[in-house]
Every structure is written in structure tokens, then in C-alpha cells.
Specification:
This protein is α+β, with helices and mostly antiparallel strands. The chain has helices at residues 4-22, 64-74, 79-83, 105-118, and strands spanning 50-57, 86-89, 95-101, 122-129, 132-135. It folds into two domains: 4-29; 45-135, ACT domain (Alpha-Beta Plaits).
Length: 136
């Protein structure tokens, strides 16, 4: 009987070690509230913010030349914002779109306003950020 007690403790210890090494099978990624830190913003794939900017134009067909004109005029002031930006033309050819990842909503709105104010072919802009739509 005495020899079976140390063997039982040994088996329980080995099982506990295996469970500890494997971790929890049901663990989920941390929620947004668990990712909050003071100071520097931590970026995670599942917490990525996507901002859409739609520019309404007077043009019948938009090409890359119009994106180049915009970026030459307002690009120097918004260089960091444009570094990760993607641009494309909406089906039909008169709406230009920018997609920004993990950018500041206020800066995106200022960028859209600067485009509208400095180009003759952009008549309006819509910025979608944090589920809110701003019309400029």
C-alpha cells in the first residue's frame, strides 16, 4: 500500500505538468479592453482599425494621374498617413477611394478636407472611421 502512494503522486504530478505545458485549449484572444495600455498604442491584428475615405469628383473617369496630383499637393503634409494607404477607383470611375489602416480618424478627416480644398476636381468627401461617417 505504501509503494502505491508515491506512484500515484508521481502520476498526478506528470499529468499536472503535461496540462501546464499544453495550456488552456479554450483560450481566446484578449478582448479590446484587455489590450489597452497607457502611453504607446499596442496594435494587434484583431484590433485593426480600417478607415475609408471616398472622394466624389467631377470627372467621368479617374486614373492614377489624379491620385498623383492629390499626393503631390497634400502628400508632404500627410506623408506618414499615406505610407500605408491604398487607393482605388469605385466602379463607374467617378469616386476615388483611400483605405487607411490604423490611422487617426481626425488626421484622416483633415486629409480629406485638404484634398477637397486644394483640388478642383474633388467636390466632396466621406470619411468612415470607428463606425461613424463624416461628410466633408
Amino acid at each position: 500500500m505504501q509503494s502505491s502512494i508515491p506512484i500515484a503522486f508521481l502520476i498526478v504530478g506528470v499529468l499536472a505538468g503535461v496540462v501546464e505545458l499544453c495550456g488552456s485549449v479554450n483560450s481566446a484572444p484578449p478582448t479590446a479592453s484587455e489590450n489597452k495600455t497607457e502611453g504607446r498604442k499596442r496594435r494587434h491584428v484583431y484590433n485593426t482599425e480600417v478607415i475609408q475615405i471616398e472622394l466624389q469628383t467631377t470627372l467621368k473617369s479617374v486614373t492614377d494621374a489624379e491620385f498623383s496630383k492629390i499626393e503631390n499637393v497634400v502628400g508632404p503634409a500627410y506623408e506618414q498617413l499615406l505610407d500605408g494607404a491604398q487607393h482605388h477607383v469605385e466602379v463607374g470611375g467617378a469616386v476615388m477611394k483611400y483605405t487607411l489602416i490604423d490611422a487617426d480618424c481626425g488626421e484622416a478627416q483633415l486629409f480629406a478636407r485638404a484634398i477637397k480644398d486644394t483640388t478642383s476636381f474633388v467636390t466632396g468627401a466621406t470619411v468612415t472611421c470607428n463606425g461613424q461617417v463624416s461628410i466633408i
